[in-house]
Automatic annotation (TrEMBL):
The protein's role, per its UniProt record: Mediates the post-translational oxidative deamination of lysine residues on target proteins leading to the formation of deaminated lysine (allysine).
Top-level taxonomy: Eukaryota, Metazoa, Chordata, Craniata, Vertebrata
Family of this protein: Belongs to the lysyl oxidase family.
Cofactors named for this entry: Cu cation
Catalytic activity annotation: L-lysyl-[protein] + O2 + H2O = (S)-2-amino-6-oxohexanoyl-[protein] + H2O2 + NH4(+)
Gene this protein is translated from: LOXL3
Name listed for the protein in its UniProt record: Lysyl oxidase homolog
Organism: Oncorhynchus kisutch (Coho salmon)
Domain SRCR: 38-149, 171-271, 281-332, 338-441
Xref: PANTHER family: LYSYL OXIDASE HOMOLOG 3, LYSYL OXIDASE-LIKE-RELATED
C-alpha cells in the first residue's frame, strides 16, 4: 500500500554525534585526552595564504597548546600536512625557530607522537598526552615545527616556486560542489571511467587526494554520493596502503559488467588548505544563508578595506556559480572579500564585496549563472540555483554603493576576484535594486546526452514540403526553405534521437515560471525553455554549416531507472523538468528533431549537440554538456562514428579527434 511517491527523507545536522564510528569518515569527535583540531601558527607575519610552515598547535580547552618535538619524525609531519590540506612535507630549519621560541612561554599538551605516515588524522596516531593540565616542560626539545608543500593549485601565492606541472593527469574529481571533493574518475586507454566503491576506504581515498595536490581524505564516500558517472567503470576493490603516489600503484581488480554499476561509484572529500576566501564575500537579504545579494570585500591602494556591490547586468548562472564556490574552499587569493545579505534564508541574498573598509554591491549587468556559481562556491554554499539581477525585494544591509561591475567568470574560479571585472566601476543602472544576488544550493542537476543512441539512430529523410508547414512555422528549417516552391518539393533532413539523462543530485527544472511558458499548437503542449539544446553541423575547421532550429522545448520524464517515479510530464499543463535518475527522450520521428542539410555538399563534417548551451540552469558539471561525432556524407547516405561526450576522452585523444584547436574538450566558446 505504498509507492515511491511516499518515500521518507531526513535533513541531518552537519555535526556527528559523539561516539559515532564510521570507518570511512575521520572521527574527530574524541574525548578530552585526544586531539580534535590542529593548526599551523606562522612565526613570521605574512598575508599570503595558505600558511605552509609554522608551529603545530592543537586545540586545548579554550586555547591552543603545543606539541613537544622530542622524537618527532617526518611521518608525523606528513600526517599534519595531510590534515591541513597539503600533499607533501619538507625539511624545516629548526635553528631559526629555536631562537624564536626560546623567548616565549609554551603549553605542551602532547609529549610523544608516533605516526606511521598513513593516518588521516593525528588522533589516529599513538599519542602520549600530559595527564592533567598542559605543562611548560619539554625537556631536550621545543615546540614541533613543520613545513608543508602545497599542491599546484595553491602555489601561486604561497611564496614557493611553481614547479613544471604534469600536463596530463590520470585521475580527476567530478560532481563536487567544493574544491577537493567529487566522484573519482580515472583515465584508462585514453577514456575516463569511474571507480567501484567495493572496499573503498580512507587509505585509498587519501592516495587520490594527495595525487591531485590536496591533503589526506576527510571522507571516503560510497553509493554514488557525488552523482553517478557515465561510460566505463575501470577499477574495483581498490586497496591502497596509503603510501602510493598514484591509485594505479594500488592493488585493484578489473571490472566486469556483473561486478558493479554506476550506483556504486566511489567519491572523496579531501582536506584542503584554509584560504579564508569565505571572509571576502557575503550574501545579504536572502531567506536563508544560501541566498541573497552578493557583496564583496576589496582593498584599496592605501590599504583600507570596504564592502561593495556587483553590477548585475549580464549576471547569470555561471557568475553565480563562482560566487557560491568562493564562499567555500579555493586557492590563494589576496583580493575581494565577499558576503551575501538580506536573503530569506542562509542560502540566498544580495552579493556584497568589501573595498577598503567599506562594503558595496555588485552591478547585475552581465551577472549570469557562471558568476553566481563562483559566489556560492566562495561562500561555501555549494552551487547556484539562480542568478538574481534585481534584489530590491530583499531587506539587506545599509550598503548602497556599487563597487564592482563587468564581472565575467568561466564558472570554475574559486573567487570573484579571479574573474574578469572592470578596474573602474561602470554600470548603467547603479541603483541598489539592480545589485547582483544569488540563491545557492548544496546540490545541482547534471545533464548528459546518450551519445551511442545518437550514433545508432541517425538517418536521412527527404520530407515533402506539404508535411512541413508546422515545422516552418516554428522556424525549424534553414533559410533557403522560405524561397522554396511550397507545397512542392522536399527538404533533406538529418534525423536522430536525443536521450538526455539527469545524473546529478537535484532535479533539472526550467528557469522560467509556468506563467511565462509558451503554448505550441503544433505540438499540443507548453514549452518551458526557448533554448535547451543546440544541434550543429560543423565543417572540419569548426565553421557552422547547418544547424537545427528547434524553437523551444518541453521537459519531461520519459523513462526512469528502476525504483524511481516520474515527476514531470508535458501533457495537461503538467510540471516540467527531468528527475534525478530519469531521462527525456526526443525521438527521431518528432517535428524539428533534425538538422536541415538540403544545402549541404558531400564531405566530412562534425555533428555537435550542446545541452543547456546558455547555462540558464545550474549544473554540477558543464564540461559534459556537449557531444560530437565524426560525420561522413556522400550526398545520399550519412555515417556517424566516434560519438562521445566532451569530457569522456583524454586531451591527447581529443586533439586527435579535432582537426583544429577551437573545440578542445568540447568547450564551446
Amino acid at each position: 500500500d505504498c509507492t515511491h511517491d511516499e518515500d521518507a527523507g531526513v535533513v541531518c545536522k552537519d555535526e556527528r554525534l559523539p561516539g559515532f564510528v564510521d570507518s570511512n569518515v575521520i572521527d574527530v569527535q574524541v574525548d578530552e585526552d585526544r586531539v580534535e583540531e590542529v593548526r599551523l601558527r606562522s612565526v613570521v607575519p605574512t598575508k599570503k595564504m595558505p600558511v605552509t610552515e609554522g608551529v603545530v598547535e592543537i586545540k586545548y580547552k579554550d586555547g591552543w597548546a603545543q606539541i613537544c618535538d622530542v622524537g618527532w619524525t617526518p611521518t608525523n609531519t606528513r600526517v599534519i600536512c595531510g590534515m591541513l590540506g597539503f600533499p607533501h612535507e619538507r625539511k624545516v630549519n629548526k635553528n631559526f625557530y629555536k631562537l624564536n621560541t626560546e623567548r616565549q612561554k609554551h603549553r605542551y599538551r602532547l609529549h610523544s607522537v608516533a605516526c606511521v605516515g598513513t593516518e588521516v588524522h593525528l588522533a589516529a596516531c599513538p599519542l602520549e598526552t600530559n595527564k592533567g593540565n598542559a605543562t611548560e616542560s619539554c625537556e631536550g626539545g621545543m615546540p614541533a615545527v613543520v613545513s608543508c608543500v602545497p599542491g599546484p593549485q595553491y602555489i601561486q601565492n604561497s611564496g614557493l616556486k611553481k614547479k613544471k606541472l604534469k600536463t596530463t593527469s590520470t585521475v580527476r574529481l567530478k560532481g563536487g560542489a567544493k574544491l577537493g571533493e567529487g566522484r573519482v574518475e580515472v583515465l584508462k586507454n585514453n577514456e575516463w571511467g569511474t571507480v567501484c566503491d567495493d572496499r573503498w576506504t580512507l587509505l585509498s581515498a587519501s592516495v587520490v587526494c594527495r595525487e591531485l595536490g590536496f591533503g589526506s581524505a576527510k571522507e571516503a564516500l560510497t553509493g554514488a554520493r557525488m552523482g553517478e558517472g557515465m561510460g566505463p567503470i575501470h577499477m574495483n576493490e581498490v586497496q591502497c596502503l596509503g603510501t602510493e603516489k598514484s591509485m594505479w600503484n594500488c592493488g585493484f581488480k578489473n571490472i566486469t559488467s556483473e561486478d558493479c554499476q554506476h550506483v556504486e561509484d566511489a567519491a572523496v572529500r579531501c582536506n584542503t588548505p584554509y584560504m579564508a576566501l569565505e571572509n571576502s564575500i557575503r550574501l545579504t537579504g536572502g531567506r536563508t544563508r544560501y541566498e541573497g545579494r552578493v557583496e564583496v570585500l576589496s582593498t584599496e591602494a592605501n590599504g583600507t578595506r570596504s564592502w561593495g556591490l556587483i553590477c548585475g547586468g549580464a549576471w547569470g548562472t555561471k557568475e553565480a556559480m563562482v560566487a557560491c564556490r568562493q564562499l567555500g574552499l579555493g586557492y590563494a587569493n589576496n583580493g575581494l572579500q565577499v558576503r551575501i545579505v538580506g536573503g530569506r534564508t542562509y542560502y540566498e541574498g544580495r552579493v556584497e564585496v568589501q573595498v577598503g573598509a567599506r562594503w558595496g554591491t555588485v552591478c547585475s549587468a552581465g551577472w549570469t549563472t557562471k558568476e553566481a556559481m563562483v559566489a556560492c562556491r566562495q561562500l561555501g554554499l555549494g552551487y547556484s540555483m539562480h542568478a538574481i539581477t534585481e534584489t530590491w525585494y530583499w531587506d539587506s544591509s545599509n550598503v548602497t554603493e556599487m563597487v564592482m561591475s563587468g564581472v565575467k567568470c568561466t564558472g570554475s574560479e574559486m573567487s570573484l576576484s579571479h574573474c574578469q571585472h572592470h578596474k573602474t566601476v561602470s554600470c548603467q543602472q547603479t541603483a541598489a535594486k539592480f545589485s547582483a544576488g544569488v540563491i545557492c544550493s548544496e546540490t545541482a542537476s547534471d545533464l548528459v546526452l546518450n551519445a551511442p543512441l545518437v550514433q545508432q539512430s541517425v538517418y536521412i529523410e527527404d520530407r515533402p514540403l506539404h508535411m512541413l508547414y508546422c515545422a516552418a512555422e516554428e522556424n525549424c528549417l534553414s533559410k533557403s526553405a522560405a524561397s522554396a516552391n511550397w507545397p512542392y518539393g522536399h527538404r533533406r533532413l538529418l534525423r536522430f534521437s536525443s536521450q538526455i539523462h539527469n545524473i546529478g543530485r537535484a532535479d533539472f527544472r526550467p528557469k522560467a515560471g509556468r506563467h511565462s511558458w509558451v503554448w505550441h499548437a503544433c505540438h499540443g503542449h507548453y514549452h518551458s525553455m526557448d533554448i535547451f539544446t543546440h544541434y550543429d553541423l560543423l565543417s572540419s575547421n569548426g565553421t557552422r554549416v547547418a544547424e537545427g532550429h528547434k524553437a523551444s522545448f518541453c521537459l519531461e520524464d520519459t523513462e526512469c531507472h528502476e525504483g524511481i517515479s516520474k515527476r514531470y510530464e508535458c501533457a495537461n499543463f503538467g510540471e516540467q523538468g527531468i528527475t534525478v535518475g530519469c531521462w527525456d527522450l526526443y525521438r527521431h520521428d518528432i517535428d524539428c528533431q533534425w538538422i536541415d542539410i538540403t544545402d549541404i555538399k558531400p564531405g566530412n563534417y562534425i555533428l555537435q549537440i550542446v545541452i543547456n548551451p546558455n547555462f540558464e540552469v545550474a549544473e554540477s558539471d558543464f564540461t559534459n554538456n556537449a557531444m560530437k561525432c565524426n560525420c561522413k556524407y556522400d550526398g545520399h547516405r550519412i555515417w556517424l562514428h566516434n560519438c562521445h561526450m566532451g569530457d569522456a576522452f583524454s586531451e591527447e585523444a581529443e586533439r586527435k579527434f579535432e582537426k583544429y584547436p577551437g573545440q578542445l574538450n568540447n568547450q564551446i566558446s
